[in-house]
Amino acid sequence: MTAPAVQPPESSIAVDKAKPCIVTRDLSAYFGDTAAVRNVSITIPQQAVTAIIGPSGCGKSTLLRCLNRMHETVPGARVEGSVEILGSAIYGDGTNPIAVRRHVGMVFQRPTPFPTMSIRANVAAGLRIAAKKGEISGSTDEIVEEALRRAGLWEEVKDRLSESATAISGGQQQRLCIARALATRPRVILLDEPTASLDPLSTQKVEELVYDLRKTVTVVIVTHNMQQAARISDCTAFLLAGELIEFDSTRELFTAPKDSQTEAYVTGRFG
Amino acid sequence: MIGLTYLAAILATLPLVLILVHLIAKGASSLSLAFFTHMPRPVGESGGGMANAIVGTLILIGVASLIGLPIGIGAGLHLAEKRTTPLAYTVRFLSDVLNGLPSIVIGISAWEFLVRPVGHFSALAGGVALGTMMVPLVTRTTEEMLLVVPTSLREAALALGYPKWRTSIAVVLRTALAGIATGALVAVARIAGETAPLLFTAIGNQFWSTSLREPIAALPLQIFAYATGPYDEWHRLAWAGALVLITIILIISIAARFATRSRFGAPVD
């Protein structure tokens, strides 16, 4: 095990006492008839980093994609149960999935900058839609700068904002995608294995960034890298075959797991 | 073995080189400003040009594009979005069949539906025949170019809160645009030199005409008429016409190449 680049916060928060941000009740997600996530009830705390870990195919990405209604964009996919984000039921009657996605940012495994757009236009991409609704104040340039600063990318790209977004490195592209997600000032940001395609140095930068983000947003990160979860998250959820096995503060889950399967996984006996 | 592939590679391009050299040798001497600006002269008089045929060909290409591009791109968008519906399978299959249909069959059909009921040949019928040939080409290249756009980009846009239609247009279509433009230009280059569909529709015209309702001259028709005629003067003009036609097609093909290149170039904004 490598030494953690970032130490978990000393005052690692107790899961049950933190203010709730995302609350799921009996959440199940299906592809056709197959359930990828089964009856997950979890309370994700506000302004903290929550990691979802588990072996490949355990449904961690699917669970994440239920939190901004991306799961249902796959043909044949559907969701049962309820999800509340900051008090509003995102699967409630009359709730528009598009509006949900505007308030919950998401970053994927591989960097997905829009190749036909400049760096600036990429960051502003979500803004254009939200700004129409009068949801975000400030000029586009200010918001783009703020988002890039929050993503730790401003110094690297401030002189080349009008260049193609594909001209920068993979690690920078990924931070650009984080900036793009942050530009609309979401309260929640979902990261789906954001460092899986990055080199170690870029990975470290993204991890530091995620660590800092907790001050302003609630972060949910899917990772198959346990060390990463241990380094950057406050709470960790362990998923196995679509079921939530254990959810606790990261420190607790990694040092004193209550479930034997969790213990087997975090000590590296399978997965 | 490697040596043989060199040989095959050279043989593959040899016909084009030979044709170009031959055309330039035979046609360049008859090319002059008059060829582009003058009308054909009556039999027996020397000189004259193919101004009407050049303009006619451009008009026919224009009409064909107005028909072929919107339908083709629209159908391609549909096929890429609704990949697995019965309608999509049917359209895809029929497109491939239409693509393989001999152009003379398309010409005869256009004659049956657009010339015979009206009672006379027309530029419009020619444009429709050529446009019909473009549709399947544009449909399939559009679909292929759209499918090359990674699903992850589509998802990224959806996750930002883009509505589905806006994702299709602002991200998917825009990313594929250069490829679609290339496909469109390739289709235009392909129909620009077609002769068979025009024999039954535009038929050709010795006089100046830009009306869609009248028969119209076209370079391939004029070349055919002059090359099979008995006069040396006509033969020379036919060669010059062929050179001009192939130059137009080459220019379109090169433009298609540049459209592809800009895909990796500077962004639009």
Structure description:
The complex is a heterodimer of chains A (271) and B (269). In chain A, 50% of the residues are buried. A six-stranded mixed β-sheet of chain A has the order 6-7-8-3-9-10, with helices on both faces. Chain A has a domain at 20-112 and 186-266: P-loop containing nucleotide triphosphate hydrolases (Rossmann fold), CATH 3.40.50. Chain A has helices at residues 60-66, 97-103, 119-132, 140-150, 154-157, 170-183, 200-213, 226-232, 250-255, 260-266; strands at residues 20-31, 34-45, 49-53, 77-85, 88-89, 104-107, 188-192, 218-222, 235-240, 243-249. In chain A, 34% of the residues lie in helices and 25% in strands. With 271 residues, chain A is of the alpha/beta class. Chain B has a single domain (51-264), classed as MetI-like (MetI-like fold, Orthogonal Bundle), CATH 1.10.3720.10. The longest helix of chain B has 31 residues, at 51-81. By secondary structure, chain B is mainly α. The model of chain B is unreliable at 263-269 (pLDDT under 50).
List keywords for this structure.
heterodimer; A: 271 residues; alpha/beta; Rossmann fold; 10 helices; globular; disordered N terminus; B: 269 residues; mainly alpha; MetI-like fold; 11 helices; 0% strand; disordered C terminus
Brief sketch in words of this structure:
The complex is a heterodimer of chains A (271) and B (269). By secondary structure, chain A is α/β, with parallel strands linked by helices. Chain A has helices spanning 60-66, 97-103, 119-132, 140-150, 154-157, 170-183, 200-213, 226-232, 250-255, 260-266, and strands at 20-31, 34-45, 49-53, 77-85, 88-89, 104-107, 188-192, 218-222, 235-240, 243-249.
